[in-house]
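Below is a filled-in request sheet from our internal design queue. Each sheet records the structural input a requester submitted and the sequence that came back. We keep these sheets so that new team members can see what a complete request looks like end to end.

REQUESTER: design group, bay 2
PRIORITY: normal
MODE: inverse folding
CHAIN LENGTH: 122
BACKBONE (tokenized):
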């Protein structure tokens, strides 16, 4: 792709492409909706329990980490399916590893959520 001059219009187009990607992510990935429900539950609970600014920051970081991990996992899966439509053990390993990264990020987020919310019940 040819690099042109940086303009307001080209930056605006970049945001449009990113927004389109996020929209397609929600249209084509059922896990996006699961993450959205979990995100809404976490931040609704944050308001209800009146968590501190530091706790909110921690939840924002780990929640964002899960979202980014899921989106990269989707990208990796799509690229690997494009490169190798037939089953291949190495492709399966790559896809499993990417899915594992999402699981690790979700576990870290869950632990953070427990650390923030468990004390609110006592």
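RETURNED SEQUENCE:
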């Amino acid at each position: 792709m040819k690099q042109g001059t940086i303009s307001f219009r080209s930056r605006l187009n970049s945001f449009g492409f990113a927004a389109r990607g996020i929209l397609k992510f929600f249209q084509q990935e059922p896990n996006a909706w699961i993450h959205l429900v979990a995100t809404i539950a976490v931040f609704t609970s944050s308001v209800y329990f009146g968590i501190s600014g530091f706790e909110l920051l921690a939840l924002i970081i780990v929640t964002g980490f899960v979202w980014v991990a899921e989106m990269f996992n989707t990208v990796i899966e799509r690229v690997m399916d494009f490169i190798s439509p037939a089953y291949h053990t190495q492709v399966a390993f790559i896809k499993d590893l990417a899915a594992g990264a999402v699981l690790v990020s979700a576990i870290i987020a869950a632990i953070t959520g427990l650390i923030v919310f468990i004390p609110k019940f006592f």
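SHEET NOTES:
- The chain is about 85% helix and 0% strand.
- The CA atoms of residues 6 and 115 lie 45 Å apart.
FILED BY: M.R.
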